[in-house]
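Quick one:
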Amino acid sequence: MAGILGRFRNSWRNSVPYTENYGRDVIQEWVTSIAGSKRHPFCLDVGCGDGQDLAIVKKIIPDAMLYGLDISEVNSASVGQLGIHLRKANLEAEKIDFADETFDLVIANQVFEHLKSWVFVLSEIARVLKPGGYLIIGVPNLASLHNRIMLLFGKQPTCIHTAGMHVRGFTYPGLATVVEFNHVFKIRDCQGRVFFPFPRKIGLLMSRLWPKASSSLFVLAERCGKPSDLHQLESMRKSDEFNVAVTCESARLSR
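Output:
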């Protein structure tokens, strides 16, 4: 049975390119929809990798100013050829090195699942984003149909392997609760891409009909409130962790 399932999974992977998990057609659709309202926009890709998401922006808005942050400079030559100004940054340890309200658009595609302190990064994104600016987020979906089935049978979800690089799992409600905390952002649209185990064309239809069960989630959010309001959430989280630690230590000492 395991061999049959393995062959089926490999066959499916060959029919659905892994890059579709990055939802670049979704990014293209959203950038196109907001292009008319942003003249000479400043755009930032947080965790830009090889710059493919910003290349989409450049194609749609040729006069856009493009900036990328990444922990590695291995792609500096290739992103430079795309007109992207790359800065090296450790997102979990450093503030984003730009002034308040610099950018019209920020992209964070397949980044937040790698971060323990993603709320801090989100607050920094809100800070450097102009009021009325847009944030595009892409994350693997813990509540995808296939992950729900795997959990039902006691299996580890594919989006958060125990020995993998992902340290967080996101569902749409969980993501939205933080993104829309204190009305700092307002989610304007949500889409999904890749719908295992369906083949590509059927999967695209399924992801449109039931985006919150797709393999990857994408949200378009508009900055509406004050970035400092997100600091309350970070403080609350740290306070909760401190209180839990104190309670556990008190219980240990009382034994």
